[in-house]
Every structure is written in structure tokens, then in C-alpha cells.
Amino acid sequence: MKNLIKVLYLAPALFIASCDNGFEEMNINPNASTEVVPGFLFTRAQLVTVSNNFTGAAYLTIGGSMQHFATYKEVPAAGDKYFNFGYSQGSWNLYGGDPVSQGAVIDIAQVIDAVSENPADVNRLSVARIWKAYLFHRLTDLYGDIPYFEAGEALSSQNFTPKYDTQQAIYADLLKELEESINAFDASQQTFGNADLIYGGNIDKWKKFGYSLMLRLGMRLTEVDAAMAETWVKKAIAGGVITADEDIATIAYVDGSITASRNFISAGLMSTDYVTPGGDNVEGGKLAKTLIDHLKTTKDPRLNVISVVWTKASATAPYVADTATALQKGMPNAAFNSLPADFDTYSEPNPNTILKYSAPLLVFTPAEVHLLLAEAGLRGWYSATTPAAEYNAAVTSGMKQWAAFGAGGIISDAKIAAYLKQNPFKETGTLADKMEQIHTQKWVALFLEDEYEIWSNWRRTGYPKLTPTNYPGNLTGGQIPTRFVIPDSEELYNGVNFYEARTRQGGTNTLSSKVWWDK
């Protein structure tokens, strides 16, 4: 990539220098902006960060390995049968690579540069730094050691071979960035306003988002640096996190004719797999047996919000999306290598909730925060409420949030109460029992919303307890994938830095490699 980009930059310059004759003026696009527009780039950075490589990463790789989804086919089975590491490489595109199709890393770097000099832009700078932390925590959790301190400098400094930083150093800086950014907010100064798709420039809510992200990152360190984890978790809680439903971080989408305006999850699932009801699916996908069995066993009302089975009253009647509990059946992971005869009887995503183009994206929810607070309480780091109270609040919020998906997502208070009665917090259980209950609940509460976080939390805690598949010829020796694979292009164009980082991380770059905090 280094040499290619240099050619892209140098070839026009050489041509102009050797043969000007007015061509320089002719080659200027009168409609192109020569200045950074911070609001536009921040909007783009938000959208690209959350949507990049959803199908390959969140759906086929993580969704399958976390046993939310299953497929009978081999090609898309990155997470189902532990094949095809190429799907995981697409998330590296967040770095971008050329002036035409920049990634979110370059976008947010340009935003930060553009708003750093003017004191009146302090709020825009703070929000951009918080979003940068959100972006890079996802990247480093996927790949481990990555370019961080020198990332995004290809355009500004012509640095095409950024060094790879250790995940330990990255995490320390992300937490520092969050603290400094939150403390710098000034209610008297301007914001991104409507260019901010999540909070519309509301700095009080961005503070809660920042502290909530700090809480998530702090808790990620429990197995590698418990003292540091405790410090940052307590600091985040003291600052104020997202616990009220009105503070939920969401991005709205519409069911419009412009594809980019649609929810990328529903659009991705519809175009990639669940195109038409009945018969085969493009990628052979269904909801997984592990997920459906858990929801049925616990009598979880989210089952009827999440899943349907397509039925027909007669051979000539149209298909109907049936949410009846008795019909729901998950497909076993890695159980088939051809279309199973009973394929039509397995559950699929609900078209009246999950597959709606106008469905919102839930970026950060009170349900997750309440579960983090419950864990903090079990660790003795939080005593304002009890772990049981936080667990109950998480369940309630996690069920109520589905109402944002429309009438098909509404779960009544009576059903929530019945679920909590059926599945009370294990007050007298062991610490392991309580941890398992909290993190299994997170596996359900964050379904679809944030598969990335579910996977990271599973790698940290080991919950929920999942039985790996061992399909013939798999790439992991029958173990659930634990890291994404950095693209081969890095070996070619940034080899020195890539090999140094690979050596630090155990000498491998495979789906079985591990990140620093995964112990």
C-alpha cells in the first residue's frame, strides 16, 4: 500500500511538473472542497465506525462464533465452522488507505486537527476525542497491537508505515483521552449540533457516554491489571454513567430509497442472507440453537421479538412470520454441510423488528451499564446499590429497549416481571454463579446491538459457557476464534512494524491468536 499510495500522490505531481501548459488549472475540480468540514467528517466517522464490515465481522464471524447465528454452508462459516479468516480482515478498512475512500481513522484525525486550534471548538474536540476512543477500542479489541499513535497520518504527514503500538499502551491512552475530554467540556461553547447523529450535541449526555466507555474499558482490564481496572471503574462510576433510558446512545435510520439511509444491520442481513421467506437462504443462515434454546429455557419474552419461523397455511398460501414460542427452533452450529431437509423449520430474524430498515442502532445502552455495575458490585468496587438491583435494572432496560424497533418489539411490564421471577438474581450463589448469570445476560441483552462487545466480554470472562464446534478442516483446532486476522497487505507494505507486533503477540496472526487482556 505504501508504494501504491506514493504513486498516487507522486505521479500527478511529476506529470504536472513536466507538462504544465495549463493542465493544472484544468484538473481542478470546481465542486471539490479544499478545506476540512469538521461536522461532515464527524458524521461520516460515526457512520463508518459503527457500520464497517458488519456482515463479515459482526454477523458471520462473531455472530456465528458466539452462537447467535448458524449456517450450513462452508464459505460464510467464519464463526460457525471456524473457516475463512478473510471475513475478519475487512474491519481493517477502518484505517482507509487512499484519498478517495478514507476510513474513520483518517476522518476523525482530520476532525481533531481541524478543531484543535480554536478554543471555541473545545466541545467539538472533546466529542471527537471520545469517538476516537470508541473507534480505537473496537480496533484494538479485534486485532490486538495496532497502529495507534501514528495512525491517520497518511494524508497529513505522508506516514504510510505507522508503527504498531502495544494494546497495553493503547488502553492507557484511551482512558487518559476519555478523562481529559470529559473534563474539558464547556457548556458555553458550540457543539456539532445536528452533525452529531447520536446526541445532537448534548454535552451532558456525551459525558455519560464517555464515562460509560471508561467503565467498559476499565472492566476489560480485570484479568491483566486488577488495580488499574478498579481505579478506572471507580472513576467512571463517580463521573456518572448511562443508567436512564433517555440517555441511551442511538443512531436513527429511515426506510428510504437511498440505501445509505437504512439501518446497515437490517440491510446487511436482508441482502446477504434473509432475502425472501421460505426455501434456502443466500448464506445458509439461521438463528443458532444455543441462543434459541436459552431463550426458551429461561422463558425470555425477547424470543418472540427476535425470532420467527416462516409458515404457510397451505401450499398456495403466502408465508407468514410466526413468532409462536412453540415453533421457535435454532439450527445447530457446524452440524450440516448441505441444505438440511428441515431448513424451513428453523428460526430466522424477525422482519418486524430486526429486519426493519428503519430500525435504530443501539450504540451504548443502560442495560450494558447496569450489568457492568452489577459486576463492579460483586468485585467490591461499587456499593450504591446491590448487584441484584443492577441485574434487575439491566433486564428491565434490556427488554424495554426493543420497543424502539416498533410495535413488534414491545414487551409488557407483566412479561418482564414474570421473567425476573422465573430467573431471579442468584443472591446465595457462588461468585462464579453470579458472574455467569451477569455475563450470560449480557450475551442476550447486547444481541445484534453490539456483537463486538459480546465477543470481547466472552474472551475476558469465559461467559456464557459455549461448546466449541470442531468441523473437519477448521482453522482453529476446534476452538472458538479469539482474534481477528490482520490483512496480508500489512506484511507487504508495512512489514517491519507488522512483524515486530506479531512477534510481541506470540508470533502468530491467526483466528487463534490472543489480545493482551485476554488471559
Automatic annotation (TrEMBL):
Coiled-coil segments on the chain, per record: none
Record carries keyword Cell membrane: no
Keywords: Lipoprotein, Signal
Signal peptide: 1-22
Name this polypeptide is given: SusD/RagB family nutrient-binding outer membrane lipoprotein
Biological source species: Dyadobacter flavalbus
